Amino acid sequence: MKRLKRKKPYLGPQWLRGILFVLLSAAMGYVITRAVLPVNFPDAAELVKWMDKYPNYIALTTLIYGLLTAVLGAVTGQLWLGGAVTGAAAMALSLVNYFKTAINGTPLSLADFGLATQLGEVAGVAGDLTPPEGFWKLLVPVLACVAVLVLVRRLTVLRGKCRFLSASVFLAALIGLFSPLCAPTVGEVFSVDVYSRMPAAHNNSFHGLTVALWRDCVVQPMPAPEGYSKESMEQVLARIDELLLEDDAARKNDGAAVQPNVIMILSEAFFDVTRLPDLAYGADPLANFHALQAEAISGSFYSHYLGYGTGYLEIAMQYGVSNMDFGASTNICFMEDGKYELFSALPEQYTKSGAYRAEMFHAYNDSLYNRTVTYPLLGYSASSYSADMQNMGVEWSGSVYGGYYLKDAFMYKAMLQRMEEINAEGQRAFLYGITMENHQPFDVEKFGGACQVGAESEVLDPADLEIAKVMVEGMTRADQALGALVAALRQSDEPTVVVFFGDHRPNLFLTDGDTIYTKYGICPSNDMTAWTPEQVAELYSTDYLIWANDAALLSGKAGTKTDSSITAVGPQLLELTGTPVSRYWGLLRKVSEVCLTNGELYFADGESAIFASEADAPLTEAQRELLGLRAAVVYDAFFGQKFITAAMNEPPGM
Q1: Which pLDDT score is estimated for 123?
Q2: Cis peptide before 441 (omega within 30 of 0)
Q3: Which of 185, 180, 225 is closest to 329 using CA atoms?
Q4: Cα separation of 300 and 502, whole Å?
Q5: d(CA 416, CA 573)
Q6: What is the DSSP string of 108-159?
Q7: Terminal CA-to-CA distance of the chain, rounded, Å?
């Protein structure tokens, strides 16, 4: 019998197959590029304009996906498989970006990948996520291109040394594309600025998702202060001492006679809803908050995000640094452990003397934002999450859940119980609580249709009004829990200061995809790049108050209106309690007098005047010097040689 001849797995000479391999990899990259762009730019007219204006960004996106296809194709020996994996990953990435933008109006950035392992938890608290209309149609050309690669697979087979060499070359090119050494050249070729910091919304809108993420990876490190050296940093230290000692002498602050307990409450998505136009209520939804303002220090509270970012805000508040101090590739909740110990954090200003014990309470579980790692490093002796609090033996009747999460009122009762236990042991308590009852999603079923105060609108249709009522009910419950907390503290003999604030506003989306803020004309659209700095500041602001069960603890400031921020409230609290502070926190206090917040999209000076950026603000030379001193200290600690980092944790003059 004749032996059947085995069919060769390839056709044509090696050189021809190599050329086809490269060309088809590029074709696959282009098809993927054209498929993901409509997800990034849902408006077809906007996409056409963008493509006409920035063909170089299309070319770079094609290069990235083409190289990835080629690498995977050469490694696996099947180009169609490389195309399929790359296409699936690219489409999934574009979908994640779409969902993130839909949830909070902010596109995906590299820092968000720190939460990649917690994607399920993030999706769980976000609510229902639906792909954009027409998304599945965008998969058709990708699948068609993969099918073509399958049909011509015998014409793209690389074998032996050629396959190994090709895989090595493609991989080296891909690594080079993301290399800090090669990136500036790549940026120059494709007209991408890899030196300037850029807000995620502008980066994504300007470059498209893929190039924006590439840029996040390769943006050049923060430049060192001019003349950076040990001698220059010692001069910085001496100047900080001079300013702080002058300030202390002027304030005549010898420390408070009483060491109060401190309870800080991050109230999820809380803000004064009566600031919204149009909505009319049957009763004041924030009756307790408004009444307490007469006894407290209160005002607008500038945040860095809208609709999300709680974990990042916690770090900024308690450690004094924000995403602006790093590149877009840094997630400040997932830095190396040692970086959280460079400076003594806010709670450590209290606990270092041994008089205080710091504990954290969170009304959810411990899965998000790396809190199980960061909070002990920030000086907290213990952390209690939802299940822990339910096992504390708190006296309570009825369900402990409100909507989808633990009730604020139950959490506050657990915190008060723990404060009493710490006081009984002879220490003061520094307690930091993070609520969840008012967390999204704002589904109409969330609170069983309840809206205790009622709400009417001349602008919103009935379906949208029902969504707004869910927000109002959540705010009302937050207010009622605050009232119960304060009522209990009025009966306590233990001096206690309460700092209550909203971390960010809810990004409340209505039935047509617009937000309630767009409906009311507070912003022109959901696209943040179209907002003015004043609109950003309005929507990035919430409300706060600092209240004490002994008015003397507020140093005569009860009833005053003073704006604050995520980065200013820590120094504000330290000043009120007279706690001896380090040079670092003393400097942050001085900085907060000239800059309430310095965010990606706006800058608020010490008088709440709003500008697009620090560079646009008409600051005096002395004010810019303060910001420069802070920048030098942060650079030295996180990027430099740590010449004065240890000294910054000591009191001034030591």
Answers
A1: 52
A2: yes
A3: 180
A4: 10
A5: 20
A6: --GGGGGGGGGHHHHHHHH----PPTTHHHHHHHHHHHHHHHHHTGGGS---
A7: 98
3-state secondary structure 499-523: EEEECCCCCCECCCCCEHHHHCCCC
Average pLDDT for residues 275-302, to the nearest whole number?
A: 97
- Given a cut of 80, whether residue 231 has pLDDT beyond it is yes
The answer to whether the CB of 61 falls within 8 A of the CB of 31 is no
Q: What's the confidence (pLDDT) of residue 194?
A: 85
Q: Each residue of 163-203: pLDDT tens digit? A: 899 899 999 999 999 988 898 999 999 999 887 777 777 78
Distance CA 15, CA 19 (A): 6
Task: Please tell me the distance from the alpha carbon of residue 396 to that of residue 481, in angstroms, as a whole number.
Answer: 14
CB atoms within 10 A of CB 13: 9
Conformational region of residue 555, where left means phi above 0, alpha means psi within -120 to 50, and beta covers everything else: left
Question: Is the separation of the CB atoms in 135 and 43 below 8 Å?
Answer: no
Mean pLDDT score, 645-652? 96
pLDDT in tens, 290-312: 999 999 999 999 999 888 889 99
Q: What is the rounded (10 degree) CA torsion for 325, 327, 333, 337?
A: -90
Nearest partner of 440 among 408, 477, 471, 479, judged by Cα: 471
* DSSP assignment letter at 8: P
Residue 235 dihedral angles phi and psi, to the nearest 5°: -70, -40
One-letter identity of residue 192: V
CB of 344 closer than 8 Å to CB of 649: yes
In degrees, to the nearest 5, what angle opens at C-alpha 18 toward C-alphas 15 and 22? 145
Sheet holding 595-598, edge to edge: 595-598, 603-605, 610-611
Helix axes 55-76, 209-218, angle to 10 degrees: 80
Least confident of 208-217, 238-247, 254-263: 254-263
Distance of CA 495 to the CA centre of its chain: 34
Task: Tell me if residue 540 falls in helix, strand or coil.
Answer: coil
Residues 163/77, Cβ–Cβ less than 8 Å: yes
Helix ranges (DSSP H) in 253-309: 287-292
Q: What are the DSSP calls for 58-69, one per residue?
A: HHHHHHHHHHHH
33-56 residue pLDDT tens = 999 998 878 778 888 888 998 999
Contact (Cβ atoms closer than 8 angstroms) between residue 415 and residue 492: no
Confidence check: pLDDT of 116 > 70: no
Phi, psi angle pair for 540, to nearest 5°:
-95, 15
In DSSP notation, 192-240 reads: ---SS---HHHHHHHH-HHHHHHHHHHPPPPPPPTT-SHHHHHHHHHHH
